[in-house]
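Exercise: predict the fold of this chain.
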Amino acid sequence: MACRVVVLGGTGFIGRAFAWRCAAHGPSLQLTVPTRSLARGAELRPLPGLTLVQADVHDEPALTRLLAGADVVVNLVGILHGHAADFERVHAELPRRLARAARAGGAGHIVHVSALGADAEAPSLYLRSKAAGEAALRDAGVALSVLRPSVVFGADDRFLNLFARLQLLTPLVPLAGAGARFQPVWVRDVAQALYACVERGAAAAGVFEAVGPQVFTLAELVRLAGRRSGHERPIWPLPRSLAVAQAWLFEHLPGPMLVSRDNLRSLQIDSVASGRLPTLDALGIHAASIDRAWAQERGNAAIDGELLRWRALRRDA
């Protein structure tokens, strides 16, 4: 019998990679992906064993109905920018509702994506709210697997691609937090880790630090993004006072947020493995370097396209 998995945030960057990974492994998992807009999940529709459902996961009665009869719940919902109330609603209150709904629906396992540096005493709202969400899920009385990733990269990421686009537009990159350290992890490795947690069930309970094999400063990652795009620009590391002023300005400009003062506070904590918790190796995953991941993504894009077409034809036959 197939395992029924409800995936919150399944139409996002990590969620799409997880859905593809499940499709590649065959019909052992039946995914239900709630979304407020069915159009956002259009590219997932052809995947076998996946059902898109229009629903607001912040509505507790709707969430409880979704989780009725689920074996596993995967929570990928998260934000990078917002006010205190936004972080509380998404990172803390939603996990509290999820805990109650999972208990009511009889789910046996929760898999949750948090963040490296999550701590109740962390300097940023983002990291403190992530810690609050973890704590809420631990109180659910359900087996819990937590992935704490560093920055996640991939073909459609909003991190390296953002810096690549910026270097197309400007001759100089004024960079806040240039010395902050990251241990970037490939989105496909994160997706594989999620799959491993779901497959192993309660045996995968615990906290895992999802990191790649290399440590970079933010400045090094920006240069790497520039080289990959063919438009590497000089970097001007901003002093703290100018960095805060820049972030304040971005907070008040229209359009998508680039960086906030809360992001700067998060950068005070290096996003690298602590050495105190298991990493992806404990889940049987040897994390790829950025160069190896990029090379594989180019080759796998064609393979995944053929896999999708083959499975769609087989399903319709």
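Check your answer against the key: Residues 302-317 have pLDDT under 50 and may be disordered.
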